[in-house]
Amino acid sequence: MIDWDRVNGLRNDVGSEDFREVVALFLEEVGEIVSRLRRAPDRARLENDLHFLKGSALNLGFAEFSELCREGERQAAEGAADAVDLEALLACYDRSRQAFLEGAGPLLGRTAA
């Protein structure tokens, strides 16, 4: 679900302080799109939304979520945006976010709750 090698590599590349900022920015930006997809998905812009989510997720090690976004982006690009299973995609994001926050606690300078 989470590519911890990628997460640790990013933290090593940017340093612990900047890593916390990257995580905060990721959660904010991705959270805004995820919230919009939950309340009022716009199938006309789904390809662009999923492209953004895919890249952001991949950068922070959300491997499974990124793969679902890639597949959804492909479907939308082929004119099948209505076939994208947003419920499964958003559930995967929720699970990934939870797993990331639980596992990354020490990397973010806090203990897991």
Strands, helices and their partners?
Layout: H1 4-14, H2 16-39, H3 46-59, H4 63-77, H5 86-103
Helix pairs in contact: 1-2, 3-4, 4-5
Compact summary:
The protein is mainly α. The chain is built from 5 helices and no strands.
Basic shape? elongated
Q: Averaged pLDDT, please?
A: 93
Main sheet makeup: none
Low-confidence residue ranges? none
Tell me the count of domains.
1
Series of H and E elements: HHHHH
Strand content: under 5%
Count all strands and give the number: 0
Q: Report the C-alpha radius of gyration, rounded.
A: 14 Å
So what's the oligomer here? single chain
Decide which structural class fits the backbone.
mainly alpha
The helicity comes to over 70%
Distance between the termini: 20 Å
What is the overall number of helices? Answer: 5
Structure description:
- With 113 residues, the protein is mainly alpha-helical.
- It has one domain (4-108).
- The chain has 5 helices and no strands.
- The protein has helices spanning 4-14, 16-39, 46-59, 63-77, 86-103.
- Helix 1 crosses helix 2.
- The longest helix is centred in the first third of the chain and has 24 residues, at 16-39.
- It is elongated, with a radius of gyration of 14 Å.
- It starts with a helix and ends in a 10-residue tail after the last helix.
- The model has no long low-confidence stretch (mean pLDDT 93).
